[in-house]
Amino acid sequence: MPVPLRVLILEDSSTEAEMMIQHLREAGYEPDWRRVETEPDYLSQLDPSLDVVLVDYTLPDMSGPRALQRLRDRGWDVPAIVVTGTVSEEVALDCLRLGANDYVLKDRLARLGAAVRSAIEQRGLRRERAAVAADLALRTQQLEAVRAITLEIARETDLAPLLALVLRKAAELVGAVSGAVYLWDDARRLLVPQVWLGCGDWMRDLRIKLGEGITGRAAARQQGMVVHAYPTSPYAHAAFTERMAIAATLAEPLLYRDQLVGVITVNHERTDRRFNAWDRETLALFAGHAAIAIENARLYAAVRTHATELQARVAERTRDLETANAKLAAASQHKSEFLASMSHEIRTPLNSILGFTQMLQEQGKGRFSDKHLRYLNNVHASGEHLLQLITDIVDLAKVEAGKFTLVPKPLAVPAVLEDILVIARGLANKKSQQVVTDLPDDLPSVLADPVRLKQILFNLLSNAVKFTPERGTITVRVRAVRGHPDALAVGYTGSHAGRPISQLPSGTPTAWLELTVSDTGAGIRAADLPRLFTEFTQLETTKDQRHEGAGLGLALTKRLVELHGGRIWAESEGEGKGSTFTVRLPAQGEAGGRAGSVVSITGN
After folding, report:
1. What's 84-116 look like in SS3?
2. Which of 215, 318, 355, 574 has a CA between 20 and 30 Å from the CA of residue 141?
3. What distance, in Å, lies between the first and last C-alpha atoms of the chain?
4. Is the pTM here over 0.90, yes or no?
């Protein structure tokens, strides 16, 4: 089947023109051709629909190069082949430079058909490349437009203005004059319009089901849809046909991770406007970014709401804490006032009782029977115990209230200890106990309140005497140790475990004075060690024995040690195996401070 071929021949010889046509027919073409000789005729017959132009290089009226230049000036992609008798290499290159696809010698016209075919194929390739380049440029333009808009909408984190921006930009992208953005209400299974353009307020009450109209159809299929001739389309919605003159509608679902977020719809109102493939692709690309922006805005809103609620709860809890703290402060103040009043009210008659009891003891010798003297001794001992209990309670209350004052000075612990050992040995002798001491000569001094240090030592020794059976042994050792306080505490149990060192007068000491009081008494169960230093705690030493006391001595001792910047802990291998109490205090010269300075330390 011959291939149609529209040919324009610029040739002054009709015979040679006929020969060209004959060779084209032999090559399988059916030429529709015109021959011209002059430049005006040539220019008048030039047409972009021509398949090929055959140009004689030498003509009376114009040259082949000029003919090629005039064709090139038109800017048309029409193949041109130079046909000449003879041609030099320079002339051939000049023709190719001016746009000729090929040149054929007149004595070799047999290759004209192949030259034409090659020229047409080259034009086809050029047109394909141009189409690809145009499509690439269009897509680049599309991507750049979507990118710019995406950056703009990404900066908006409030949902309402974001939706308005999304709709406005969607309409601009495809040249639409009206439209709407719907969000999917999963609870009611409805599409609810949020913002609209070119529509009335009647949109507020509009609700669209899945599959209803083009909007519901796009949501149900989760695919974009376009409808032209909207009024007669089966996907037209009565609410729009009754109120708006819509010619075409493009609907694109908003999907986030394959979940329906909503739908964007845009409209043309002129019948000569249509949504093309570029519009559909652009809106689909934009819808993907818009869905992400909408979900981000929802997330921001949820975070803001949560933050507001959290702030409200924190404010409420803060108010509750402030109220509770105020009540606690008031209660603490009332307790302090009560303890001060109670201490005064009880101590006054108690001191009188103790004074009269002591007087009766001294004057009753030889006058009272042994039985009555024993009663007086019991009354006096009970009074002393009650007075000590009151003192301990008041001291603990001062520590907790942060009103406890220390007056530290450099002290030699062995000298202070000797005073307490005199009392302790007196108590131990009553139970036939032995008190053993290990006191090196080269011990450093400590910075401590002398009264409170004696109280610490007495509490530990009296406690050991109390819980050690008759003929038991109590051992007191003092030594100097060095190292970080946390490192020194490794392996010990009790209330000190895992706790940082308390407030110190200044710095963190690395030299310590360690005092241990060991006994061969009842021992302590491992489960009881953590609560040993808790107020009002008394541990049972046997199943049927409890020692007298209110459980305040060790608690107060611990507070006093910590106020001096030290530590205290207890160790025991179990019931019946005795116990060891260890106190570490910062050695003088390491912790700083001045002798005689008053240090007011809180009990917290």
Report:
1. ECCCCHHHHHHHHHCCCCEEEEHHHHHHHHHHH
2. 215
3. 108
4. no
179 forms bridges with which residues in the sheet? 197, 266
List the beta bridge partners of residue 56. Answer: 83
Q: What's the pLDDT at 589?
A: 55
pLDDT tens readout for residues 422-452: 889 999 999 999 999 999 988 999 999 999 9
Best CA proximity match to 408, nearest among 589, 599, 562, 585: 599
Contact 214, 225 (CB under 8 A): yes
The β-bridge partners of 103 are 82
Distance between CA atoms of residues 190 and 176, nearest Å: 25
Query: Is 249 in contact with 214 (CB distance < 8 Å)?
Result: yes
The answer, yes or no, to whether residue 574 has pLDDT greater than 50, is: yes
Q: What is the CA radius of gyration of the chain?
A: 54
Predicted local confidence at residue 283, as pLDDT: 92
Of residues 448, 449, 439, 442, the one with CA closest to residue 414: 439
Q: Name all domains of the chain by residue range, CATH numbers in brackets.
A: 3-128 (3.40.50.2300), 152-304 (3.30.450.40), 402-600 (3.30.565.10)
CA 525 – CA 552 distance, rounded (Å): 19
Task: Flag whether pLDDT at 506 surpasses 80.
Answer: no
Rounded to whole angstroms, the Cα distance separating 69 from 229 reads 49
